[in-house]
Design a protein that fits this description.
Elements (H helix, E strand, L loop, with lengths): L2 H10 L4 E6 L4 E4 L1 H6 L15 H11 L8 E3 L2 E7 L5 E9 L10 E8 L8 H8 L3 H11 L4 H8 L3 H15 L4 H8 L1
Antiparallel strand pairs: 1-2, 1-6, 3-4, 4-5, 5-6
Helix pairs in contact: 4-5, 5-7, 6-7
Length: 188
């Protein structure tokens, strides 16, 4: 995929909120997006910053003070779900960070706050026109975008898996894509 198309895709994505805590759970840094999602992070009248309890619990989990089974995730990444004032759902993922070049232990906790998109829609008619896809190829692209396997597409379209593979080959050629992920990226 040419670089300019990748940059166009990246421009349409929302930026994550970023929080950095020390190992005691003290908030050291928050970017503008984190403040937009969680206005409670702004200092109050006393100058203290408060964060939702779910984030502090996530930090305690990352510090090793809480039960790892209480937060989602595995190994060195944990996550939780939050809702903002507008009712949008956000995933908060936390990672231990530090200077690993010298074998040092983690010194901070990085939390990324990302909006969860329940269902993205694509304009199949526009995709068909842009990439000169047939009606059936447009239907297959829509099902690929929704994450269906070749077998599932075949069952939904009442065609063989071999025919799905042929459509996929034609779609990739027309879209100049080398993978299903690239097809999806070109549609957003």
């Amino acid at each position: 995929m040419p670089d300019h198309k990748l940059f166009e895709i990246l421009k349409t994505r929302s930026h994550p909120g970023v929080l950095i805590f020390d190992l005691e759970g003290c908030l050291l840094y928050s970017n503008r997006k984190a403040l937009e999602v969680l206005p409670v992070l702004r200092p109050g009248e006393t100058g203290e910053v408060s964060a939702p309890e779910e984030i502090f619990k996530l930090c305690r989990t990352m510090e090793g003070d809480a039960d790892l089974s209480s937060a989602g995730g595995a190994d060195d990444t944990q996550y939780t779900i939050l809702s903002d004032a507008q009712g949008h759902t956000h995933a908060v993922r936390a990672f231990r960070i530090g200077d690993n070049r010298h074998g040092c232990e983690a010194t901070h906790i990085l939390a990324l706050i990302e909006k969860v998109v329940d269902h993205r829609t694509i304009d199949i008619a526009a995709a068909r026109k842009t990439f000169n896809l047939t009606k059936r190829e447009g239907e297959v692209v829509n099902l690929i975008y929704r994450g269906l396997s070749n077998r599932e597409i075949a069952e939904r379209q009442f065609i063989s898996e071999h025919t799905v593979k042929a459509h996929l080959k034609n779609i990739m050629k027309k879209m100049k894509a080398s993978s299903r992920q690239e097809i999806c990226a070109l549609l957003t």
